[in-house]
Amino acid sequence: MKTRYLIPLLFIVACGKVDNSKTTLNENVLSECNTTIQNAIVVDNIAAPLGSRRYYYACVAAYESLVPFHSEYISLAGQLKGLTGIQAPDTAKGYCLDLVAMCAHTFVSTKLVYKEDSIKNFRERKLKWYKSKLNSGVYKNSMAWGDSVGAHIARWARKDSFLQIRGTGLYLVKNEPGYWQPTLPDYKDAVEPNWNKIRTAVAPNASFISIKAPEPYSRNKNSRFYKISEDVYKQVNTQDSSKLLIANYWDDNPNSFIHIGHATFSVLKVSPSGHWLGIFSTVARQKKYNLVQSAEGFARLSAALLDAFIVCWDTKYKTEYIRPETAIRDLIDSTWLPPIQTPSFPEYPSGHSVVSSTAATVLTSMFGEYPFTDSTEHEFGLGVRKFKNFREAANEACISRLYGGIHFMDGIEYGKEMGNKLGEYHLAKLRTRKKD
After folding, report:
1. Domains (ranges, CATH) in the chain?
2. What's the average model confidence in pLDDT over 121-133?
C-alpha cells in the first residue's frame, strides 16, 4: 500500500516553514542522489565493479534511515553480510523523511568517491533548500539521524576488503594462446582482478554459481573455437546501423577513451549499475512510488548488482578467457577492430549479461511485465529506447555485446544463466517487508 507523510500537524505560518511531525517534501530525492553518484563515476572514470559498490552502500544507508518510520518495513541488518543494527531514533520527534534519506545517502557517497566536491556541492544545495522550508528543530533532527545512519554504514563499508585489495596482487598477463591479453587502443592493465575478494551483499561467496567452462582455444579452422570467433567477425562486418546503435546504447563503459593525435580524451558514459538504477527510477516515477518504496527498490537492486559484479568477476579471472578482438586479429584478420572499445578484463562470461539478467529478474519481481521507455542514455546523446518489459531490455543489453564485437555468444548465454540464478537467489533470501 502506498504511504505518504504529508499530513501537516502544525504550520508556522508567520515564517512559512513546515513544522510537521513527519513530512516528505520530495519523493524523488533518492533518484537525484543516485544521479549525483553517476556523475561522479563519469568524472572519476572508474570501473563498473567499483561503481556498483558506491551505489550499494549509499542506497542501503537511505533505506535503513527510513525503516524506523515505517512499521511494515524491516531492516537489512543481519541479512546483508556484516551489517549490524543501529539504535532507532526517537520517532516522537519531528522529521522530514526525504531530508533524512538524502543526508544518509550523501554522507556515505562522499566517503566513497575520489573527487567528492560534486556530491558535497549537491548536498550543500539540498541542505540550504530544506533549511528554508523546515522548522529548525525538524531540520536538525532529520540531519542528525540521517548522518548517524550514514556514519554507521560508512564504518560497515570500510570492512568489505576494498581498501585491502587496492594496489595488491596485480594481475600478470599470461602470454599463452587462449588467455586474455590487453587490447587496443591503450593496452590497459586488467581491471579489478581481485574483485572476488570484496564482501558480497547476499550471495554466500563469490563462486557459489558455477557455469560451463568456456570453449577451449584452437587455431584449427574446423574447431568450434574458430567458428565462434568467425561468428563475431561476420556479425560485426555485416550488421546494419540499428545493431550498431544498440551496441553503443548499452556500451556503458566509463573507462573508454579516444585518441586524436597525441591527445587522449575520456568518453562520458554511464556505468551498467547506473543504467539499471536509472531504469528503476523511471518506472518508480511512472508508478508514483513514494519515498520509502523507492528506497526499498534502490537498496534491493543495488545489492543484487554488487553481487552480480562479484560473482561475474570471480569467473572472469578464473577462466582468464581471450577476447574476440585478440582471437580475430590472430586467426582471421590482423587489422580488425570491434565497433566499441574492448574493456580491459577477461571475456567469460559477459558482465553485461550477468548484471542485466540479474537486474531484470529483480525488477520483474517488483513491477511485473511492465512496458517502459528508457531515457538513461539520452543525456549522453544516445536517445531513448522503448521496451515491452525488463527482460526484453536485458536481452538487448546482452546481445549488444555481440553487436559491439567484444563478446562471444557463449559468454553472453552463460552470463544470462548466471544472472538469472543470482537474481532468483536474491529474491528468495532478502526480505524488506514483514509480510514478504
Report:
1. 11-163 (1.10.606.20), 172-429 (1.10.606.20)
2. 97
